[in-house]
Design goal:
Blueprint lengths: L5 H14 L38 E34 L2 E5 L1 E4 L2 E4 L1 E15 H6 L1 E7 L2 E7 L3 E7 L2 E12 L2 E10 L9 H6 L2 E15 L10 H5 L7 E4 L8 E5 L24 H9 L3 H10 L1 H11 L3 H6 L6 E2 L23 E4 L2 E4 L3 E4 L16 E9 L5 E7 L5 H7 L3 E3 L4 E3 L2 H7 L1
Antiparallel strand pairs: 1-2, 1-5, 1-8, 1-10, 1-11, 3-4, 6-9, 7-8, 9-10, 11-13, 12-13, 14-15, 15-16, 17-18, 17-21, 18-19, 19-20
Helix pairs in contact: 5-7, 6-7
Length: 442
């Protein structure tokens, strides 16, 4: 399997932005949290914001480029188009809309889904951009009918979207300031209502900007000679950051969510959870506590919700452990106690539990080398490089993990261990020793 490229990283983060807030825990259409949706990057039709029924119609941003002689720019606009799923029950007079239809033990519910859309503009030369470019956007409406045997049918309806992408470039000394504007121009002068505004909105809108024979300058850490050019940039409802692999300067992500340069999806994350930057571990545990009836309702709400439920149901203790990143307390639990339940709390024992450090389970008896960090107390710095034996691993009320150790070369070590006077370090301040190093230290 080949290593991910910078473009792979950009797509992964962009997809997370596209669906952020798409569906919130507990992932059921009946939940009040899911009756007001689409939190980020929503471009409503003109008039929606002014009348209080939707979001503003535009987002704007500016980037700074260091161009070569043959520099070109390509802009990809991505967003979701709302798709309403209406379930209809068959009766003697035809079909009647219903919120929920059960067929063969499976519930089908009416719900607002979404369809991914992507508009590519370019590549444009700097000469073309200096003259200004206006790219119209048109997304067709649609209506799909899927029968549910003789019991009913599902109708999926999409409404037309119209917009405009405007690009312009301005030369400033050795740099070019690139302006990007995206406008929703839909509904043709109609007065939007709360229901129609979301139907004619571009949801989760963001842009991926790629350049050839040019470098995109970091707006967060610009070089000294570009500071003034960057300071003159203006942004509204979005902000561009460098994207891809660290060091890449040919891709920028214009995001409606505040990000740093080179954002990435945590490798510990097993998949999207959509829930407005909720912590994966906590949210996965919450999903596991849903009743079977609640899980069935979530699965019926949306195929993406069904994927979340199935993934959490199949999650092992090892998978949950990965969500902790570097350190993870690993309780040694009785096989009769489900590892994620409330009852498992009583099985946490500091003299038995462990924490995973650099892929190694550190627990009582593990030999480690101490690596105090700069945040350590001055006294702890005297122990840098010392070899110690782990005596306890536990977490405090704030959720921080502590490793209690006894120094191997301390003449009073056995006494300290006997009455529990340990030195405490964070998991990233201890380094598990290899077998050969253990033997050499004895």
């Amino acid at each position: 399997m080949s290593a991910p490229t910078g473009r792979d990283n950009v797509r992964a983060v962009a997809d997370a932005i596209l669906y952020e807030g798409y569906l919130l825990y507990p992932y059921r259409s009946t939940s009040s949290k899911n009756r007001s949706r689409w939190q980020f990057g929503v471009l409503g039709p003109p008039g929606a914001m002014e009348t209080g029924v939707g979001e503003e119609a535009a987002m704007t941003s500016q980037l700074v480029l260091r161009p070569g002689a043959q520099a070109t720019v390509t802009v990809t606009l991505r967003f979701l188009q709302l798709q309403h799923r209406c379930v209809e029950r068959a009766d003697a007079n035809g079909f009647v809309a219903t919120d929920d239809l059960e067929m063969d033990g499976i519930h089908h519910v009416s719900w607002d889904e979404a369809v991914e859309r992507e508009i590519l503009s370019g590549p444009f030369s700097l000469a073309e951009l200096t003259a200004g470019q206006r790219i119209p956007i048109a997304v067709e409406p649609g209506r799909d009918v899927d029968p549910l045997g003789v019991a009913g049918r599902v109708i999926r309806t999409r409404w037309p979207l119209h917009g405009l992408v405007e690009l312009a470039a301005e030369q400033i000394d050795d740099y070019v300031r690139l302006s990007l504007q995206v406008h929703n121009t839909g509904m043709s002068g109609e007065t939007p209502t709360k229901e129609s505004a979301v139907r004619f909105s571009m949801i989760g809108a963001h842009q991926i900007v790629t350049v050839e024979d040019a470098q995109i300058i970091s707006l967060l850490e610009p070089p000294d000679d570009a500071v003034d050019v960057v300071a003159g940039c203006a942004h509204h409802r979005c902000f561009p950051v460098l994207a891809g692999l660290p060091g890449d300067t040919d891709v920028a992500l214009v995001s409606p969510i505040i990000l740093y340069d080179y954002p990435e999806i945590a490798e510990q994350s097993g998949g999207a959870l959509f829930d407005s930057t909720e912590i994966d571990e906590i949210l996965s545990l919450r999903v596991m506590t849903l009743t079977e009836e609640e899980k069935a309702q979530a699965r019926a709400t949306d195929p993406l919700a069904a994927q979340i439920i199935d993934r959490c149901d199949a999650m092992s203790p090892e998978s949950m452990e990965q969500l902790h990143g570097l350190g993870r307390i690993v309780p040694q639990l009785d096989d009769e106690i489900p590892w994620w339940t409330e009852e498992a709390d009583g099985s946490v024992q500091p003299d038995v539990d462990g924490v995973v450090v650099d892929g190694v389970l550190v627990a009582k008896g593990t030999m480690v080398r101490l690596r105090p960090s700069r945040r350590a107390d001055a006294q702890d710095l005297f122990y840098a490089g010392q070899i110690a034996k782990v005596a306890t691993v536990h977490a405090d009320v704030d959720g921080d993990t502590h490793v209690g150790v006894v120094l191997v070369d301390d003449p009073a070590g056995e006494l300290h261990e006997w009455y529990g006077r340990y030195l405490y370090f964070a998991p990233d301040e201890v380094q598990p020793l290899a077998t050969t190093e253990k033997e050499g230290s004895s």
